Amino acid sequence: MNSKLIVAMEGPATILTNPQTGEEKRFAFDYSYWSHDGMIEQQDGYFSIAPNNSKFADQNTVYRDLGVGVLRNAWDGYNSTLFAYGQTGSGKSWSIVGYGANKGIVPTFAEQLYKEIDERRHSSPSTQYEVKFSMLEIYSEAVRDLLHPSDDKRHGLKIREHPKKGFYVEGLKTQFVDSYDAIEKQMDEGTLNRTVAATNMNATSSRAHTIVGITFVQKQKNEAGQETAKTSVVNLVDLAGSERADSTGATGDRLKEGAAINQSLSALGNVIAALADNSNGKMVKVPFRDSVLTKLLKNALGGNSKTVMIAAISPADINYEETLSTLRYADRAKQIKTVATVNEDPTEKLIRELKTENEKLVKLLQEGNLPADIVNGDRENMSDAGDISHASL
Questions:
Q1: Pairing label, strands 7-10, 13-17
Q2: Backbone angles phi, psi at 78, to 5 degrees
Q3: Mean pLDDT, to the nearest integer, of 83-111?
Q4: What DSSP character marks residue 318?
Q5: CA dist., res. 356 & res. 224, Å (int)
Q6: 3-class SS at 189?
Q7: How far apart are alpha carbons 336 and 345 in whole angstroms?
Q8: What one-character-per-residue DSSP string does 336-369 give?
Q9: Helix, strand or coil for residue 325?
Q10: Is 207 within 8 Å of 240 (Cβ atoms)?
């Protein structure tokens, strides 16, 4: 194609050069990963960092920076979402799912989760663990269950709204999986059922958005002998790539699919813009209901979730406009602030908070820094508070 390289990375900064004017635009993120060159293929097919090259970011590096935090959040009982956005063919599925020996974040996350479950079963045999797996795609605004696919792609599962849990997919099947091999089998089955097609820019272009859901439950008995549970829902989202018809050469069904993809991504962009404005002090209505994708990502973007976004870009000059659009998209998304809370039994949460408060008071007492209003307060109230704290231990 005789394309020219127009992307550079310096630490966490991504630098984009306009091929016509030479003007540079700099974007700062938490991480900027270089994957254009500087790798060497191992015998098993894994791409590792070439000798004397520190720029290339392999799959293990990306997982260590992003996936480990998602796994830690799961153990702590937080909902987490990781989604990849970018132009078709830019490497979203490579980052999320991976290929062959180059495992992406989803399979590596699942593998590490079961490793840690096995380790903790030995150290804490009384705790029980449950893992459930689901996989769906949004094709032309219709939701399909990839583990139990229907031949009718145009009429999918219905989206419902729960007053507390928010939007969910009615009838979506979840599978209990008791090992990494089981979850890998389900993932392979779902991947085979994904809607893909060839375009000029990608031989296996995703024609739908894919959402992998992993529900992780930890059950144990508290000091009173009651069973308590801590639940984490992890959503790993591989968005279909934004595309331009003149670049992809799309016609017929491919053209209609591309239009539906761009429409839902545009709705997602409007949601991100509104959330960013709200985070900056403006009061703007967030249009979550404008598409199926934004409904299902409502918690991830504006609710109870810790969220990570991967922006995949092309380094070629012919894709300058798409790359610039993606970087601006990500730059706006990083302004969004979400508030995540631990998903646990309300009584257990109260006990945990009372324990924490009690520990703080004990520490202040030992240091002689107990607040005056507590030291000089009503003795009867102090006695009652002492009884509550004692009951919580």
A1: antiparallel
A2: -95, 145
A3: 90
A4: G
A5: 18
A6: helix
A7: 28
A8: --------B-HHHHHHHHHHHHHHHHHHHHHHT-
A9: helix
A10: yes
